Amino acid sequence: MTQVAATGRPAPSLLSRVVKTTTRDPILLCAVLFLLGVAVSVVFAEWIAPHNPLRTSLRHQAKLPSAQFWLGTDEQGRDILSRIIFGLRITLMTSLSGLVIGIGLGSIIGLVAAYFRRLDMLLMRIIDVILSFPAILIGLGLAGVTGGGNAGIIIALAVATVGPAARIARSAALTVVQMDYIAGARMVGLSDTQILLRYVLLNCLASIIVYATLRFGQLILLAASLSFLGLGVAPPAPELGVMVSQGRALLLTAPHVALMPCAVILLLVLSLNLVGDALRDALDPQMKA
Amino acid sequence: MLLRQLAYRLAVSIPVLFGVLTVGFFLMVLVPVDPAVIVAGEAATAERLEQIRREMGLDRPVIEQFIAYLERLAHGDFGRSLLSGNPVLSEIFHTLGPTFELLIASLLITIPIGIILGLLAAKWQGSPLDRAIMTFAVVGMSAPAFMTGLLLMNIVGVGMGLLPVQGRGGPIYTPTGLLHIILPAVTLAMTLIGPIARMTRTSLLDVIRKDFVRTARSKGIGERRVLIAHALRNALIPTVNLIGLQAGFLLGSVVVVETVFAWPGMGRLAVSAIASADAAMAQGAMVFLAVAFVVINLLVDIVCGILDPRARAS
Amino acid sequence: MPQPILSIRDLHVSLRLGGTEHDAVRGVSLNLNKGEVLAIVGESGSGKSLTALSVLGLLPRGIAAISSGEIHFDGKDLAQASNAELDRVRGSGIGIIFQEPLSALNPVMRVGDQIIEGIVRRGEASRKQARKMALETLIGVRISDPERRMKQYPHELSGGMRQRAMIALALVSNPAVLIADEPTTALDVTVQAQILSLLKAQQKSRDLSMIIITHDLGIVAEVADRVAVMYAGEIVEAGEVETILSRPKHPYTLGLLSCLPEFSDGGRRLAVIAGSIPSLTESVSGCVFKTRCPLYMQGPCDARIALTSGPDGHAFRCIRPIGSETPAESEQTRHA
Questions:
Q1: What's the confidence (pLDDT) of residue A2?
Q2: B225 Cβ under 8 Å from any chain C Cβ
Q3: What is the value of ipTM here, to two decimals?
Q4: Between chain A and chain B, are at least 3 CB pairs below 8 A?
Q5: Cα–Cα distance between C172 and C154 in angstroms, integer?
Q6: Most B-contacting residue of A136, A157, A251, A271 (CB-CB within 10 A), to test interface
Q7: Tally of domains within chain A
Q8: DSSP state of B60
Q9: Which domain holds residue A151?
Q10: Is residue C271 included in any domain, yes or no?
Q11: Residue C91 is part of which domain span?
Q12: Among chain A residues, CA nearest to B293
């Protein structure tokens, strides 16, 4: 995908720059591979997970990692690795849904606010109000009302993301909207929607993508925290946060039960942050152009 | 004008508070548990339950209940906890101090250390020290608060037996109080240290190249003054801004840390209230959490206004 | 002949771009005499700003540095001085003003505080005295409502006012030398004239020795006594302004003059100098201007050319100076 910089010259392809940066930095490479591995495991969980994540076993309670159970077992004898794989699916689905909804809505609002200046004031006030809602409160409130569960978490994540996404989309769009080629497009007779979609959106994509990657990690942390507090999916569902909270009781005797899912969350968010940083460095000069 | 900005911030917060109140109210209405049953016990007869419902005003239309509820709030009556029977307001007041203490303690740790780390990383840009600090920062940012808490608990608290891991030992100025607050405060501090160090480094590197730093040097005032009064002073503005933006995230982390360390604060109160369907308590705690959030944002706005005169004139 | 107040000898400044070092200023020698205005003129990339910045050790750290040469001022060689030693000269001995006044002033500090900062830090006067001096200087630069300006922040002032504030900042300690790096380039045309006349007035009243860096020959004609023309890091011509502007010897100087609208034949296109300045990475053997010179002669122009000095102080770096070519070539040069 080539992006046309403001001067009209085609900038080096986004993909080629990303690939170049990745192959140069070994840690970044590991992060990308880890993310790919996670993606594959999540999609093909049923084939990859060695055991049934819900199958309890009194014989194998809280066992340390072994040949049979690669990451050990939890307090009810379930295989931790399998639970983590399926748990990643839940965590990722929840966070991704919240991210996509939040960024989708936020971008639309931000783009519209930047393009239709009359609506700008009103929209931004609404966004300010939304921004004033801390995510944790939304999560708490929704959990209280719905009794917990994924839907509440997804909504909380989405609401937490709409605000910042709108702001970023708007400021990126503002720099574009004032450029001459937009006026040119309008003169040629393109409709507002066409202009918005074809020109404004494309050039804001970079900022939005960078923000999305960095935000994804934060949302995963938020989702895991809400589940840890008991406000999300209920056990026996293998959500990562829930696994940690249940493993707390065994923290002294069998710390791996709580710490394995912790480590996975850490690696996941770390990889996302590293990739997000690299993306931002790669796209920044282009964004400044 | 800074005042106008603050007034705007307050004005925007009113719908938020109202929203929290409304959600809180509907908690009581929609909650699957019947409050009357909780009060009277499972074995109560149907008439007894009806009687209690009438006493609690649960048989009237929802809108009437809502208005009555708002009236009660206006008089400072937040109801009583379904569990303990105590007035919600008094229980919340008991938790205000500990949460406040925890926040202040962790900010006192994270802000100076974060800024110093960012400074060092910027000063020795590209060196192993820089990379080590930045690695530390990004890892710290990626670890969930409960992970840091549990790890510290396990290793320092129990493994080495150095520090207590649960509860609050008293006011922070007492020895036991101080010992008890260390682990939770450090855990909370770890969530912000990464972003602060990174932002300080980035903005310092950005500012040092700016023209006005060159002008400052050209006046012969000494390199140290150039770095501190001119470069750092400007570089701190985005960092303080960042803390404001992270306020929501910080609040979430407070709730988690209080839960992990059994710290008797508002966050833990809110979570346990929601978990036990103690609607009045949950709603009261949420309102106060929202107020805390607004106050934090106001303070950040004020500090930003002091630091950056351009922000005052919006 | 009295000693020049500032003397730059064989200055070399290296620039680091993308990992490699380049010689951006090559062997520049300049003398500034007391009370005179010396202009350094050239296009972007000629190295004129770098030359000016090296005097006070203000080259961007890690990117540019003095690789060799001497800068003599007040009995010291500034090129060898430590940062602490330079601090003693900065502001009090030599002042400098920059091109873009908004970014050159600290946005979070009041204008008045920025002006008095140097005096107070160097212990030359108390805060109260310094404020008085600042006020007087601000009045001197003809800024409107000076007392109010001192309490304001840079973003509250207009472009012209900011530049006046910067001039006040540089002059408040009464330095002997003022370096002005493109002082009017970033300003509106109407304000440019005001600032220029202000600089001229201040220079006269304070008996300042001034170096003015510019790409605008019009400014040179208006304020300067002597001028040095720089191209690709070297001085190609230097001398009295009147002489250089009316009887230039270097083809580049002539080309610059021809580009001025005043010198074009009415109705014809504006003259340009074809080509562009060689980039730092290209190394040119011999005359730096040969790629664009209409008088280029293969052979002699490919060898290193030294600066030839005439008795009237007119120096030029050319082996085929204007006046020595055939009439046909002269025609060619004039309409290049």
A1: 40
A2: yes
A3: 0.84
A4: yes
A5: 18
A6: A136
A7: 1
A8: S
A9: 24-49+70-283
A10: no
A11: 6-231
A12: A134
